[in-house]
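Q: Can someone sanity-check these two? First one:
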Amino acid sequence: MPMKAQRGTGEQDGPDTTAPTIQTVQRAALILGSFTVGKPHMSLNEITARLGASKATAHRYTKALRAANLLRYDERTSLYSLGPQVLTLATAARAGLPIVAAAEPYMEDLVRRIDETIVLSVWDGESPTVVRSVDNTDHMVRISVRVGSRLDLTSSAQGRIFLAFLPPDQVPTLPRSVRKSAELTEELEAIRQHGLSVNSPAVNGVRTIAAPIFEGDKISGTLAVVGTTATVSDDVKSPMAQALLETARALSQRLGTSDGG
């Protein structure tokens, strides 16, 4: 006697209607993922080759991604680059990093202790990027740092912290930067010794002190005090600097380092 197959409740008739949608998402992700720090611009021919599709298909995808501000097109060079919406998404992604949630109470406590703006930055593959800022509101002059700001690698206190503690292969420009500046070489050695970097730009009267945050034996971020030259000392042994260092080490312990950074 022939038996009739039973269809499970999760089984669907006909072809998978989601397949075209999945392919669309995969292709869009492939295009966006093709851009890197070393390859920030691509031609339509290069995108077509990455897709393994026709030029007409590649053009349809780039047009749709441009409409969503995920791609930018330079008519002068005929090259594509990532659009401004990617930066917004990147900022949101960084805001969701575990370090941001973990750092929040430490930053709030440090603001109460020293009465200055506290900034958290992470490494974005090329430079430090601000992912959280807790502003001091009690001073006559209020220092505010925009979340999403990318900081200079060699001149900012946060940048120098990353230069001092990141593996050399993660900072390809480091050997060239060090060769060009004896002062930078000495500063990086000093940072490794006392765990702090101080930056005092003469042009704006703002002073920053930064300390590393570690997860295990790897640096995962920097915590920084940002104030004016009148309220923040440039002495790494000052009570304010030591309070920052103490907080960064406590946060590192919270994130799993064995020695407090």
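And here is the second, same format, sequence then tokens:
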Amino acid sequence: MATRTATHEQLMAKALIVYERLLATYGDHPLVPRREPMHELISTILSHRTTQSNEDIAYQRMWERFGSWEGVRTAPLDALIEALKPSNFPDVKAPYIQGVLNRLHKERGEYSIDFLRDLPVEEGLAWLTAMSGVGIKTASLVLLFCFSKPIMPVDTHVHRVSQRLGLIGAKVNPTAAHGVLFDMLPHDPPFLFNFHINMLRHGQRVCIWGAPRCEQCPLTDVCDWYQVHRPTDK
């Protein structure tokens, strides 16, 4: 099934097949917040181009050094950069984090984004992405993971796997992919959460960058990339 000829209905059907097989492979994950919303937002900013381990170390160092969001907001910039060094590009991320905190301090008078729970998805997305360092991926993760909003986060793994499968075209960038994938999936937060988590895991473990481990993949019969690049494996 080539992406250029597939109808929207065919892509929806393929997406459901992908969902069911990855669910069988990686399991059904309950949509329960893994961390408090402010923690999720700041940690997701820290996660850009770094490992999970280094993201966690940088967050803990920041918290141990400054002790509160007010302490982080008012910290000398060079001191915050130093605390965030385990995360790549701390000199970029530190001003982003202080920008988030400054906006909350000015607009809300408190360091909480719990108000996003009561906003429609588009309003919450607009509020978050208006801040430097908070793109659609970060905003979507926060809204889905913390507030169970119907939205589809797309990281580098989800994007790569979706392109190889043929769910999205080769020219669909990660930003556009959020809407394209959302439109072909049920708008049910637990479904979207499991689709995201299991596509991510598949991209980390099997459909890796470079040479995918197709021999381990349960999706080869519906994968456009496999049909073109591994025809002798069939």
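A (reply): Looked at the second one. The mean pLDDT is 95. The chain is about 60% helix and 0% strand.
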